[in-house]
Amino acid sequence: MPPITTGRVVKTSLFYLLVLAIVAFAVFPFYYAILSSLKTSSQLFDIDYFPVRWNFGNYVGVFRDNPFATNLWNSLLVAVVTVMVSLFLGVTAAYALARIRFRGRGLLLMTILGVSMFPQIAVLSGMYQLVRALGLYNHLGALVLSYMIFTLPFTVWVLTTFMRELPKELEEAAILDGASPWVIVTRVFMPLMGPAIVTTGLLAFIAAWNEFLFALTFTLTNNERTVPVGIATMSGASAHELPWGNIMAASVIVTLPLVLLVLVFQRRIVSGLTAGAVKG
Amino acid sequence: MADRLSRNRTRTAWLFLTPMLVVLALVAAWPLLRTIWLGLTDANLLHLDDSKWVGLDNYTGKGGLLHDKVWWSAVRNTLWFTLLTVSIETVLGTVIALVLTRTFPGRALVRAAVLIPWAIPTVVSAKMWSWMLNDQFGIVNDLLLKVGLIDGPKAWTADPGLLMTSVVLVDVWKTTPFMALLVLAALQMLPKECYEAAQIDGVHPVKVFFKVTLPLIRPAVMVAVIFRALDAIRIFDLIYVLIGSRESTMTMSIYARQQLIEFQQVGYGSAASTLLFFIVALLTIVYVLVGRVKLGSD
Known about the structure:
- The complex is a heterodimer.
- Chain A is mostly helical.
- Helices cover 72% and strands 0% of the residues of chain A.
- In chain A, 45% of the residues are buried.
- Chain B has two domains: 27-67 and 251-289, no CATH class; 70-248, MetI-like fold (Orthogonal Bundle), CATH 1.10.3720.
- In chain B, helix 9 (205-233) runs antiparallel to helix 12 (266-291) and helix 11 (252-262) packs antiparallel against helix 12.
- The longest helix of chain B is centred in the N-terminal third of the chain and has 37 residues, at 2-38.
- Chain B is globular.
- Classes of the chains: A mainly alpha, B mainly alpha.
- The interface between A and B is large, with 93 and 102 residues.
C-alpha cells in the first residue's frame, strides 16, 4: 500500500469527482423525468431537485387521455415479430456465410455491411410506394417489413462472426451421421448460439422499439401508432400546452423495461455493439 | 466425389441465403432504386403513378436543389452538427473510457449508469430534454441562473441562435456512451506491458496517454469516429421532435422528409434523399478502407 500523501488524497478525490460528474450527467435526465412524472399538474411548474410527492395521477392520465395502451401493444408486437423474422433469416444466412466457402461470399458480406449504412431517408419514398403497393399502408406489417432494412444486416453480420468461431468437428461429425444442413443449423448450431442469439435479438428489439421515421410515415391513425410516434404526437388542449406530466409518465413507462434490459444484459449488449464496429 | 460434395455445399449455401436476399432486395435495393428514379421525375405524393420524367431538373434546373438556399443551409447544418457532435463525443467518450478502465469500487454500477442514455429511445430523450430546456419551467435555466452563468432565462428550443447548441447538447448526452464503449473495447485489447514499462520509468500519466495509449488505439478510434459520423449525418428523430422543421437546425434528412411528406413533392424530395445517399455511400467507402475490414478472407 503506497503511503497516504496530500497529493494522493487530492488526486483520488478529483478522480471520484469526475466519476460523480459522469454519473450525474448520464442519469440526471431520466431521474428528472421520474421526478416530474410523480408531480400533480400544479406542482409541475415549481422546479424541484428532489422528489416532493408520490402522485401516480399522470400514470393513470397517460392511459386515460391517450391510446397509450394500444401504442404499447403495437410497439411490442412489431418489435417481437421483427426480432423473430430477422433471427430466422439471419441464422440461415449466417450458416451459409460462415460455414460454406463459395464464390462471391466476400462481396455479399460487403454488400450487407453497405446496406447497414443506408440512411433511412434514402429509401423513404421508394419504401412508401412499396408499402402502398403491398396494401400495407397504415398497417403494422409495413413496420415489420421496413424494419428489416436495419435489423437484418447487423443480425446477419454478428451471427456470421459468431458462427465462424464454432468448431469444425461438430459439423463434420453431423455430416458423417447423414444430417441435412437444416438439421445441422437447428439441432447442432442453434443450441450453441444462445449468447449470440440473445445479443442480436436484444439489439434488434431495441432498434425496432425505438424506431421513429418509418413509424411516423407509414402509419396514420392512433390505432396503428407505435409508442415513439404516440409520445411525439401527444398534445394537450392547445398546441402551447403540452401535457408534460403525461409525457414524462409515458417516457418512464417506455424506458424502464429498456433500462432493466440494459442492466441485466450489459455485457452481452456491449459485446454485440463492439462486434459490429471495432472488430469489423 | 469431393467436387460433387462441394457443389452440393454451394447449392445449400444459396438455398439458405435466398430468403434473406429476397427480403433485402425488397426492402433495400428496390426502394433505393425507386427513390433514385423518383428523383428524376416530378412525382407528387397524391398521384405518385402518373409522374413525368424531368431528367436532372430537380438537381440542376432553375428551381433545382443546387440553386436552393435552404438545401445548402441544410447541408451546412448537417456537416456542422456532425463535426461538433462527433468531436465532442470522441473526447468525452475517451475520458469516460479511461475512467472505466481503472478498477475502483462501484465500477460496474458506473458502467451501467453510463449506458442509460444509450438505452433511452431517441424520441423519449428529445421529450425529456425539451422539458428540461423549457424556457419558463425548465430546470436547465434554473440551474444556470443559480450558478450565475446566465442573467435571464433562455429560450433553448425557440431562439434560432440557441437551437443548434441544444441539439448538440442532447445528441452528445445520448451518444457519448456508445463512443465510450467503443474506445473502452479498444483500450481493453491493449497489451498491459506497455503501461507497466512506462510506470516503472516514472513517465507522467498524461504523457503515457499521448505517447503510448493514443497511437495504439487510434485505428479503432478512427473506425468509431467514422461509424458515428455516418450516423450523425443522417440525423432525423432528435431534431424533428426537439425542434421541428426550423431552418437553423434543418438537416438534410429533415429537409428531404419535409419536401417528401409535408410539401408532397416526392420527386424533389427524392432527389434530396439521393444526394444524401451518395454522400453517405462515399463516407462508407472511406470507412471500409480505413477499417481495412477483412471480409471472407481465411
